[in-house]
Every structure is written in C-alpha cells, then in structure tokens.
Amino acid sequence: MPDVSHQTRPAPEPESLAALLGGRSGAVDASAPPVFFVTAWLVAGESIGAGIAAAFAAAAVIAGIRLRRGARPRAALVGLLATGIAALVVLYTGRASDFFLIQLASNVASALAWAVSIVLRWPLLGVVVGGVLGQKARWRRDPDLVRAYGRGSWVWVMQYLIRVAVFLPLYLADEVVALGIARVVLTWPLIAACLAVSWAVIRKTLPSGHPGLRHPAPSE
C-alpha cells in the first residue's frame, strides 16, 4: 500500500506576533513594582521609604522567580535595575510621582526610536522579529517584508505615544495613584492590542502568496 503518512497534511496555522514575541509575563512582571510602590505609599501615609521598600521587594521576588524558571541572569535582573533607578530618582527629588518618570521618558525615547527606524527603512519590528527567528538581516532583502514591518511599526509608535499622552498630564498633576492605575492598564492590555493590530497590518500589507515571516523572499 502507498505510504500516505506525508500526504495531504493540513497547512500550518499562520503564526501571530503574540505567539512569536510573547511578552505577557514580562509585561505583568513590569507592572508589579509600581503597583506595590503606590499601595505601600498609600498605606504608610504617603511614605516614600515604604513605597520604595515594597517596590524593591516585588522586583526581587520577580527576579528570583525568573531565575528559577531558567531565565538569563541579565534578563531576570532588568526589572530590579529599573526599580533601583526609579527609586534613586524618587529619593533625590522627594516626589512620589517621579517613580514613573523613567517610564515616561522611556516611552518618549521609544516612540522616537521606532519612528526613526521606519524612516531609515530598518523598522524595529522587523529587527525584533528577525532576531527571534534567527534571520539576522535577511528579512531586509525582501521589499514586501520591509514594507509590512514598516507599517506594523507605526502601530508600535502609536502605542508609546498613547502612554505619553496619558502619563504626562498625570505626572504634571502629581497624581500618584492614577499613574499607578495607568501603568497597569497601559502595560499588558495595550501590548496585547498592539500585537494584534500590528499583526493584522502586516498580514494585510503582505501580498497574496507571500511565504510568511519565517521565509523572506529575496528581491529579484
């Protein structure tokens, strides 16, 4: 009898950016120190010291969990370092809202960096996905992928600008609790929406019959 084991296999489901990039656990972990900071700050009568101690405790626990799960030490300690920098800023200024200053500045810088990368035809979404897929810069030899990654990257620029538009007035008004709430709402939920929308943009931009993100088609 003929071997049909390799015949008529169903086509693989198209991968999404969410499946490739993940990010849910990292986004949730990043929200924990600010939440603990604001909670302890409130409970302790607006004590900056209590807020910093709680934020550091949360960041240390998260780093420990990541290390036990096999994460690289540098990746596991990034959150702890970010919390330390935010704490130093707060201790220097004495304003609890300055705990969110690094987050605000990083979103401004990220929006600028992603926009510049698109203009230079090195869209950062392509750099990130290409790195995850082990393609290095091969994706840049595919004009369709470069165009799709560029359009998808504009969604990420909007993500950062949305955060700036929300964080900046709250920061200027010294609304510590509102900043903490915004930090949670605009982390994983916004990232999930960004992944979904940018993936839809990429799929719509790529021409019919394109082999997909894993198989860059070199220009002729």
From TrEMBL:
<keyword id="KW-0812">Transmembrane</keyword>
<dbReference type="Pfam" id="PF11361">
    <property type="entry name" value="DUF3159"/>
</dbReference>
<feature type="transmembrane region" description="Helical">
    <location>
        <begin position="35"/>
        <end position="63"/>
    </location>
</feature>
<dbReference type="InterPro" id="IPR016566">
    <property type="entry name" value="UCP010219"/>
</dbReference>
<feature type="transmembrane region" description="Helical">
    <location>
        <begin position="75"/>
        <end position="92"/>
    </location>
</feature>
<protein>
    <submittedName>
        <fullName>DUF3159 domain-containing protein</fullName>
    </submittedName>
</protein>
<keyword id="KW-1133">Transmembrane helix</keyword>
<feature type="transmembrane region" description="Helical">
    <location>
        <begin position="178"/>
        <end position="202"/>
    </location>
</feature>
<feature type="transmembrane region" description="Helical">
    <location>
        <begin position="112"/>
        <end position="133"/>
    </location>
</feature>
<keyword id="KW-0472">Membrane</keyword>
<feature type="transmembrane region" description="Helical">
    <location>
        <begin position="154"/>
        <end position="172"/>
    </location>
</feature>
